[in-house]
Amino acid sequence: MPIENIPEIFFKDPKVQQDIFVYDFKMTSDVVKSKVNLGMNMFSFLQVGKKQVHFAGKSVAVNKDQSLLLKKGNWLWTELLDTEAIYYCKLLFFSEKKLTDFLSKYTKDVKPYQEKVPYFVIENDDYIASFISSLSSITFEDSPYCDAILALKFDEILLYLLDKYGSEFEHYLHALISKGVSPFKNIVEDHVHSNLKLEEIAFLCNMSLSTFKRHFTAEYKEAPGKWLKDKRLQKAKELLQGGDLKASDIYLDVGYNNLSNFSVAFKNKFGISPTEI
């Protein structure tokens, strides 16, 4: 799975650095779990379709009635078409410098949330819908006032969201410029019982697969594949012992692509098949 560097792949001239950048994104085929290196903080104003994102130990899914503000970094995300076979969103990217200037002008010197949540879910309303309609990568493209207009649009949406969400949003904005990085173990253990592959967990840790494996073995004194497999099978056993779920209900959630492989691995581990629990 190749890594997409966003927003750089959307720039007409990659050599030109931009503090604020708008891109109209459309597609007509589902994208299943892309790796994205997000180089700038970004608003994703979703208009048609659905979007799911993973960042370190956090994940969230939104629909067309919601928008997202995402912090820069490595993301896994899935974009899905709606019933009309289209996906459409408007993306507004902004630099840390632009955000710092805004915060110094309009907000207090507050401490960011300790958990450093990487996303903020925005519930769209009439004002936001109107704002989205006014935002386009081509509207001001040939205007000598393009940069100034986009700067005003940036201030407008942040001020509106500050008014809408209050201190919760203010704390989140300050957290975006925090330099803290999620610890390696937190990321790994937040995904123990997910269906993410080793390669995908390594990506969320900002590591190549080989570096991740070395780091993991040094930290846990065991190969990551075996460690994750044992943890996930143990979780599967606990779920089955609860009596409400069958193997067919859980095999995907514990990292297996098909029921047969899960059943074989389970029997090799515990000496009995899942149906015997």
From TrEMBL:
It comes from the Bacteria. InterPro entries: ExsA-like_N (IPR054015), Homeodomain-like_sf (IPR009057), HTH_AraC (IPR018060). SUPFAM superfamilies: Homeodomain-like. This is AraC family transcriptional regulator. Residues 182-277 form the HTH araC/xylS-type domain. It comes from Mesonia ostreae. PROSITE patterns: HTH_ARAC_FAMILY_2. The keyword Metal-binding does not apply. Keywords: DNA-binding, Transcription, Transcription regulation. PANTHER family: ARAC-FAMILY TRANSCRIPTIONAL REGULATOR, HTH-TYPE TRANSCRIPTIONAL REGULATOR EXSA. Pfam families: ExsA_N, HTH_18.
